[in-house]
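EI: anyone free to look at a 81-residue chain?
SC: sure, send it
EI:
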Amino acid sequence: MNSLLVLSQGGKKRGYQDYIYEKFLIDRDKTTTVTVSNYPDSYKLLKLIKNFSQTSFDNIYAIGGGSVIDIAKVLSVFIPI
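SC: here you go
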């Protein structure tokens, strides 16, 4: 099961990804992690969409604030699930 994990730089520093892996029993080897800055620009978003346009994910997890949640929502619309 391929998963996408979107989190903030601060969340990554605090180890939130470990919490998600354990809580939801996610395989680390089948998870792609995207770290989002506090104020991501449209260029970064378009780059993410392009990079993942041929990748299928079974689940998308987002942990963080508004930017993280917004990026995850946009990716959920534009990439195959």
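EI: The chain has a mean pLDDT of 90.
SC: 👍
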